[in-house]
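FYI - complex with zinc ion, inputs then prediction.
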Amino acid sequence: MLLYNTLTRRKEEFIPVTPGLARIYVCGITAYDYCHIGHARSAIVFDVLTRHLRDLGFDVLFIRNFTDIDDKIINRANSENRDWREVSSTYIAAFNEDMEKLGVVRPDLTPKATDYIQEIIELCQKLIAGGYAYAAPNGDVYFRVRAYKPYGKLSGRALDDMRAGARVAPGEDKEDDLDFALWKSSKPGEPSWPSPWGAGRPGWHIECSAMNQPFLPLDIHGGGQDLIFPHHENEIAQSEAVCHCELARYWMHNGFVRIESEKMSKSLGNFKTIRGILEEWLPETLRFFLLGKHYRSPIDFAYDGMEEAEKGQKKIYLALKDAAEATRRNGWKKTPALPAQLEEWSGLKEKFREALDDDLNTAQAIGYIFAAARLVNNLLEDKKLRSSEDAGKIFEEFIASAALWNRELGVFGRDPGVFLADLRRIRAKRKNIDESLVANILNERGQARANKDYALSDKLRDDLANLGVEVRDAASGQEWDIS
Ligand SMILES: [Zn+2]
């Protein structure tokens, strides 16, 4: 498998330190609020990475942490007059709920920063002993950036460029503007732990170095692109200064999510939480949408894009449903033989996997799912072709492939009939269509048809169309969908 390595800035063959075992660490959330779509993207990208590595036969040890102590958590607790532990545990639970809905497999380990205070203190002590850190008179401990020569190797930044952006916050007591806090002395009333430098709490960057220390060297370290600098740069400095090994061989970073072409931010008021989105869309649609772009590209969350993803998803589920119906039929014919279609079909299966092997190109892999559905639909639409034995073989394998797509991408694992009913329900909700009103009109229309009152039946069909509902008269009765 090829992976793009942020550290070397090129795609490289994935070769783990221990053959057959992939150790992956991804930076998790700071638990102070509901998670937004950017968190969903990162979680889904690394979920698909672990799914694919497992499918390739690797044992995967997947670790994703929680930051459960931080300024943001303390501020929220103070403003809501709650205990900070209650704030972080509330949002960790909410995160787990969101992930479950999105079909994100739970990591093997989910360490929390406050369970590693002792390890953090010991790491600070080692860094101080090595000359890489110092305790300031106010009880803070800082990392001495200039003491660690390779600093900047991940982000490609030179120290002097960083200096321009560095600032000393009020109350900080640094030797150099570039230095960053490993341990912060606590103000009165703040949560704190005893340490050799007085009561305090850990800085953000040191947590990850302490939590992943037992697993070094990691094979893959990941997170959003916004973490490259300073968070991951600082993690490398803290870890590598002490372990004298590489923190991770491969660094993977997923791109940003923008909202309607704008950066998402609370101040712009375009903040999209996962739960807000799932009020209007199925979780599998959000997943399918996010995987529709290569993970390193930015992605634009917009209504039209989601509708398009939803339409595409419906098309594939319909093809699965129709193919399943076709295979229930008897009387397959030997002719016509379909060698070209069989060849196309087996090529598509190969290409799906190859796309994922190539730096997890989910967009391309999904393209092959669409191509497979097109091939199946073309066969289904042709009376002569669809009763051929070869077509039957393609239909069966197409249906079986859904299990592979589900295992790899976490999509198309549901019963098509159940999925399509759920889809209709959420679309009705999103478009404010009253389902019980639709049911009443359909009922009335059914009676009109039974009475052969076609004028009334047509009028009721128009009424439904005005509501945004399409009705089809099938052998089994009236079928409807949101147009
Ligand atoms: Zn981290």
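The longest strand covers residues 218-224. The chain has three domains: 17-276, 280-419, 431-482.
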